[in-house]
Write a structure and sequence with these properties.
With 421 residues, this protein is of the alpha+beta class. The chain is built from five helices and 25 strands. The protein folds into three domains: 91 residues, Beta Barrel (Lipocalin), CATH 2.40.128.120; 92 residues, Lipocalin (Beta Barrel); 170 residues, Glutaredoxin, CATH 3.40.30.
Length: 421
């Protein structure tokens, strides 16, 4: 009898302990995060940290994160908290944050890109502060980098070398700007200038950029990092007259071809061809793009508005989506997210994997696919009138404004042309 009572007592104690552990697990509640300004620092290495500012707000028990790069704001509404775990999903790209809430003013974790097995650790802290911390005992900053610069990336390596335009605006220690290449731009950069050193970064949901440089004898030189997978040197000199090759001359129809032709499935799996009746007698813009591409995101925003304003006048747009995945369902989900986000009512086709060589084979009439995005302008007769390589987004300021104005005028001209019987 005593033995039975002893065993019963052990079972009771064990059961109570187990129940207590379960109750303790239920009581693990994350501390309420402090709203307001935060600084998130990506740790590329022990010595290189790429920062981005964000604002955290809470409404009806739901958190929202708004990342900022100069004038750009990227709102992530899908924020999930489970105990002390937090996840933040980008609204467009297949990237997300997984973190642990250390306390109400600190989060630690990693940023991940889907399908790439790619991650970068981060630490986020609440508080208003500069992107890049000013080191103690630095001399007063006397330089101003505002203006236009002629830039060489990887100048000592011919196979990787390319030219760019650097455009910067500096007020005191604060600097914004971008680099424009023949295939696009590095979007909204923001940072600080201390002594004769410049630090700039950008996080747009898909890409993470870090630039460091120093001004010595009127030459600005430094290093550029794209996440943890790319690093290259750059040098720049002031040159207000420098221009890149005309983007309208880089991609063209090869000899022996007269028109563009293709057949690809849409998101419903139905084959669509440029020769379909829907496009006959219409002005058509064929946009070669990818749902992973921030410059493509910028152009999609513009094309969605252009289509809305001109579709009834005879404009059609076909986006050829080249995805980083060759799985149709994955590619479908990725491009559908872009389509819905921008309320783009034109056709999106699944054109294949984002490999420039493979993409060129699927469009053999083009000399190459040099850049995502590339836009092909076709008149009502089916003749190619212009091919634009790359896209200068809103982060390029006047370059963006001028391109939008010229393109609007060009499309209006094509729409006004009559088709002869």
């Amino acid at each position: 009898m005593k033995k039975a009572l002893y065993l019963f007592s052990l079972i009771l104690i064990f059961s109570c302990s187990e129940e207590s552990l379960k109750n303790e697990e239920k009581l693990v509640v994350a501390p309420s995060l402090v709203e307001g300004s935060w600084l998130l620092e990506f740790h590329l290495s022990e010595t290189n940290i790429a920062p981005v500012n964000f604002t955290l707000t809470k409404k009806n028990d739901e958190y929202q994160v708004e990342f900022s790069n100069a004038e750009e704001k990227i709102v992530a509404k899908k924020v999930t908290i489970d105990g002390k775990k937090i996840s933040i999903h980008d609204p467009i790209f297949n990237t997300w944050f997984e973190g642990v809430i250390i306390n109400p003013t600190k989060i630690e974790g990693k940023w991940l890109k889907g399908g790439d097995d790619y991650e970068i650790p981060f630490v986020a802290n609440h508080g208003i502060r500069n992107r890049f911390e000013k080191q103690k005992n630095l001399k007063e900053t006397k330089i101003n980098l505002s203006g236009k610069w002629e830039v060489d990336f990887s100048k000592q390596n011919p196979s990787d070398h390319y030219k760019a335009i650097g455009q910067f605006k500096q007020v005191d220690d604060f600097i914004t700007g971008t680099f424009m290449t023949e295939t696009g731009d590095y979007r909204y950069l923001e940072g600080n200038v201390y002594n004769n050193n410049v630090y700039m970064s950008c996080f747009d949901g898909a890409h993470l950029f870090l630039f460091k440089g120093s001004l010595i004898n009127e030459k600005l030189s430094g290093v550029f990092w794209s996440g943890t997978h790319w690093e290259e040197p750059w040098v720049a000199v002031r040159n207000e007259q420098f221009e890149l090759t005309n983007p309208d001359s880089l991609t063209y129809i090869k000899d022996g071809y007269e028109e563009l032709a293709f057949t690809f499935p849409n998101v419903n799996g139905e084959n669509v061809s440029l020769s379909d009746e829907k496009y006959s007698g219409k002005v058509v813009i064929v946009n070669i793009m990818g749902p992973w591409c921030p410059n493509c995101k910028d152009e999609t925003a513009y094309l969605a508005e252009l289509y809305k304003n001109n579709n009834e006048k005879g404009l059609e747009i076909i986006a050829l989506s080249f995805d980083q995945s060759d799985d149709f369902e994955v590619a479908k989900d990725n491009i559908t997210r872009i389509k819905m986000y921008f309320n783009a009512d034109y056709d999106f086709l699944i054109a294949g994997k984002a490999n420039k060589i493979a993409a060129a084979k699927s469009l053999p009439m083009l000399n190459h696919i040099m850049s995502y995005p590339t836009s092909i302008f076709i008149d009502r007769k089916g003749s190619i009138r212009k091919i634009r390589t790359g896209f200068y987004g809103p982060g390029t300021g006047d370059y963006y404004t001028r391109y939008i104005e010229k393109t609007n005028d060009f499309v209006a001209k094509l729409l006004a042309e009559e088709v002869e019987d």
